[in-house]
Hints:
Blueprint: H1 5-17, H2 23-43, H3 48-58, H4 73-76, H5 82-105, H6 107-111, H7 114-133, H8 135-155, H9 167-173, H10 176-193, H11 203-238
Helix pairs in contact: 1-2, 2-3, 5-9, 7-8, 8-10, 8-11, 9-11
Amino acid sequence: MKLTKEEIQFIDNYLIKNEVKFWDVRLELLDHIVSAVEDKMTNDGISFNEALLEIHHKFGNRIHNGYTYRLDFNKALFIDNKGFKKFTLKKQKEIRRKHWNTYWRTFLPFVFSFRFLIEYIVLGFFTFIGYQYSIKSGLLVLISGVIISEFTKLFYGGLKKFKSKSLNIQMAVASSLLMTQIPFWIMTLFNSHYEDVESKPYYILFVIFTLLFIMSRHGLNNYINIYRTYKERFALLMS
């Protein structure tokens, strides 16, 4: 038995009221719940309300408050949303694993792409120019490449309404704040370790920050692909 548009909209509103705040998670839940409710109504011959209440409970949400076991349908649906919170946490782990696998699968193709090689040569050129003035100037140029990549990720499309409500987008940008702090920690550890050394091995920093730039720049490229994918999906959802 197919649900009406009004019933599907009711389920969507029910998910919103149960604090399923990420639209991509809500869309997945909506599709699953609609199919499950339709199956129960068809196979078990029960009403929409009864079917939705059963599905709500099967997700791990309580349907009573510990005192009253038979409640009004609308009240029973909003007593507890722990099941949906657990589902969101599960999706976070799945998305993190998916993004990490995608990152490493596309790493070498990106690093050997013509566009990145040009960017790498340009950064190397300006790092060399800075190095002519001082070692620290050269390092600053190299570090700037890492910082710019991460802040571009943080603010890319930041004014778009959907960005803050997509779990996939949030997970893709989650590491950026950490990455912007890593250069500071590395410099602090390096200066502390070689504090009494007259001729510090700055080449170590150049190697580390070069690797960080490559990883950070690929992270930005990976993020932009994810961003565009979910931007298109959101546009379709809103159309």
